[in-house]
Amino acid sequence: MLEQFFNWASQYFSYTAGLWAISLIVPLIIIYLIKPRPRKKKIPALMFLMKENKKLSKNSLFQRLIKNPILLLQILIILIAAAAIAKPFILVSESSYVENTILVIDSSASMQAKYSGEFGDSDSRFKKAIELAQINLGEKNTVIIAASTPEIALKNEEKETTKSFLQNLKPKDTRSGLFDAILSSTNFAKEGDVVVVISDFIETESDKGIDTAKKILKSRGIKTQFISLIDETSKIIKNVGIISVEVSDKFTTVHIKNFNDVEETVGISVNGKSNSNISANQLNIDPKSQEMFSFSNMPGITTVKITVPGDEFELDNTAFVSTPTTNKVDLLYINSKRSKYLGTALDVLDNINLKEAGPPKISIGSEPIILLGEITPNLLLPQTFRNIEKKVKNGAALIITSHDDMFQIDYKGMLPILLNDDGFMNDSTVFIDQVNPLTKDINFGKISKHFNVSAQEGVNVIASTNTGVPILAFKKHDEGTVVYYGIFDENSDFKRDMYYPIFWKRLTDFLVNKVSLRNINKKTGDLLSFTEPTSVLTPTGNVKTNILKFTKQGVYELEDKKIVANLASVKESNINSNGVLQKALSDPIEKKEEMVPENISKYVIYGLLAFLFLELLALKIRGDI
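Below the sequence we write its predicted structure tokens.
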């Protein structure tokens, strides 16, 4: 009997076990049938006789139940609650692709623009894209997010799971790598499957056309549907935006473009105010033209904002600049004879406070960088290098430059190289072994004299001669770093190179872990890797990760620095670009109609709440509450 009931119920409820809640009616009726304990009370005998017949009729079981409206209402409430728990559904007609579907959804910055076009109006193109994605699902679905790089967000899931997932997606502030995202769909689609691309088709990461991607998919037998959120019916969106932020050592230059068909007046503020630090507080920009302004860098985070009456795309109206807050660092230059080349380069560096000392009396203080120049060995006191070695162990940096008598000095095991038997070598060319921020664009050139040395185990060789002799090498010494600079400046052309002082500035910055402007001023879509999970306060909250993705514009706070990420993309800000003609590119694809269950639990719950309200009202009228 019960089995037959539950089989019948399964046609209307997806969780039939919830119907067991109906059994609560039994204890409810029992409570109503329990007679209260009689109370003794003196009453006139005549009254008792007059009411006896009436009392007998009311005490019958059947009449006590059917004549109690509150009981009937409570039974009805239990029935409705059980139905809600059992998840009722009705069958509705729904169309879907027969094949598996791979959804490519554009989540780039331009998708945050308002949408008005063929598919109706929406607060944003992205929100409309989600609506369209939910009505273009297949039996199984894979979701690929098209941002600066493709992101595989969901793999081979059922329709209902995919719908729930799509509702939680948010747009990013990045450029659009749509071409790569479409190509990545070939990793999941097989012949006969459907790839649905929903986008405004503003490609900003590749010069390759969408039609090329379409041909590649077609060659593999994969069908495509291109749904463009820009078409001939789309409303033109007004936009003036920041398209470039160039940060140099002392100044920041910001480029602004007017994408509209009329001249626009643009107000400019830096850190919330207009001041004389800005080259212009207001700009008049011609249609389809751009202008620039600049300001002196300020330590820490600087917020740049433009205001344009009637602007409809807020994201590119703000930019951020991060500059280091650290002051100059002390550098102790120890020498018996000052090098006119190195000494001059150190004099002009604006990132250090230069201190000089010479043997025998050398006072080692709190300087984070110690540079050893040409030193007369027999003037050194035994305690000098013991003090230097102690400093380096505790985290200081030591730079050892070449001179004729350098190997007569006891470096207490800190020297990164070993001298070979034949001593000096002549006429070599120095090559960069590792191109990095320190050596980028540096050309050490030819040297007519250098030591024939070999690197010790664990030493990082950055530059070496054509015969493999280390010229620039780094070595860790406990908490500190030791650098070997093997060029005799007087015997090389590097001293006259424009990059000579730049090299020394980069080296000193590197040794104190000074952050380069490029490393703290990023573009949205960039990645930053860590050697271990690192806590970062992002514009959307705290995360702990090995790979930080700059998906939102704003400030990212790490323990030792603050990094900013800006959109600053002329292509992404051109939000009225012509979208792809989806009708011309899309394949004819048939959808199948099928009856699918649609959950109506929420409507049953609404009914339950209404009956609960009626019960409270009835109790109030009866005087029970």
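The longest strand covers residues 527-538.
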